[in-house]
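Note to self: user wants both folds in one dump. Writing first protein now.
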Amino acid sequence: MGVSTSSPEKGAEKGIALVTVDFPPVNALPVHGWFALADAVRAAGRDPGTRCVVLAAEGRGFNAGVDIKEIQAQGPGALIGANRGCFEAFAAVYECEVPVVAAVQGFCLGGGVGLAGNADVIVASEDAVFGLPELDRGALGAATHLARLVPQHLLRALYYTSRTVTAAELHAHGSVWRVTAPGELRAAALELAGEIAAKDGELVRLAKAAINGIDPVDVRRSYRFEQGFTYEASVGGVADRVRDAFGRAAREESSGE
């Protein structure tokens, strides 16, 4: 359990760092998990032998965001930690010195959208769904990164309704490179990473820096701005009220009331 890095050093896969997240049962990361992920991605990108990073996850979902139970149990300190951890992890993916390929299966929610939205390329399985259920969870954030995946008006509709969008729909928008059968996801991501890693390593790093430099939106500043509203909702009591109502509704639904 946790974050691990491996190198599938064989044939066309040479030069790839595979960073894998595994926080059962749903990959909702605790505070230390976000910082561990940031450290792993940054370390992989700094390695001169790495030409491409594949970000993957174990289990039935890519990422379910932050560990809400940790925040509820530990209070404001955990919220601040989660905010900082997400900020670091998202920035690590975006600023990684080499391209990052996200291999997304199952649910990609909240912080998962932040990770995938900051990746250079997304490969997703047929069962993958992407969304920001923040308004149902008493939080805000990651609209910055969802905006990298869908057009502006669809972004607003998804954000306000907490609905999700499928991998096939994102493929139609051009933000998912390839949609695969679930059992073929990891191989497809490594295949693409191998194609990137076959390029000159120094030139790939220059290309990554050049592409980031022409981005029309400063994703770090934009996301940091959003986080201020997340904290405002928390200290103002709005977050607790919404989370409590959501929790009651979920319990009533599961009990059949």
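First done. Writing the second protein, which came from a different request thread.
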Amino acid sequence: MSLRGGVIGAGVFGGYHARQYARIAGVDFVGVFDTHPDRAAKAAMPLGGRAFAELDDLLAQVDVVTVASPATHHAEQALAAIAAGKHVYVEKPIAISVADAERVRAAAAKAGVIVACGHQERVVFQAMGLLDVPEQPLLLEAVRHGPPSDRSRDVSAVLDLMVHDIDLALAIAASQPVTAEAEGHRADDGVWDEVRAEASFESGFTAIFDVSRRAAGRHRTMRVVYPSGEVAIDFMARTFRNTTPFALNPGFADTPAAQDPLGASVEGFLAAVRGEAPRPVVDAAEATSALDLAIAVEQALEDAG
């Protein structure tokens, strides 16, 4: 079953998604819509696609579409695609409000279309074997630091960076979060760029998240503590230390999924669209749950002053 694929947004991630649709077998890459037609052309034409100046024109030509525009536009553009009967892959976060995320989820259910969200780190966890550990964690500590960038300035570091690790925490938690506390620093433009947050769950599980968009370099680590031991991950070195009795995959970095998490996530979306998989890697409900906790962290920041 051949699918016609297109991309909304010609930024960095829009380019990544355009290349995925151009390379994946069984997909005909149609093109890119962007409010700046020259950017759309730059992203689409080298891959054999078209630049679209109107969103409706792109939607009329595709079966599946990726929303890779700034996060503030995710919900409205996903809803437009769903209204046109298209299956949608939305880059994270799925929206910038829980109400909008629920609107996307409800519209997709009513229209009978697939909505996936780009929490691509989930495939790395799967490649390691962490989603199959038969023991509930006690503690997760995640650090995700990067240097200053003009990208994603429309949202805080919580919705830009922390939401990745929030999704991973929710994926291994056996219960729902009940409280969130946070502290941080704003940049000169008023956006939260450094945030440390702690979420407590019904089961007693605690997740601690530390993100920064003002670091000297990139630093990504995670420690997951279980009753029987712990797993300490260095995502930059693509290694981990495991003191639990559970067999994880030390060669996870060499798996196709870990080498190209975005590609694996997009392929999972397409498999769900074709009916070859029961669901995408991360569905709209899970993306909404991650957003819900991220918004709770942002509210905790505001409450703390």
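Dump finished. Worth passing along: The longest strand covers residues 177-186.
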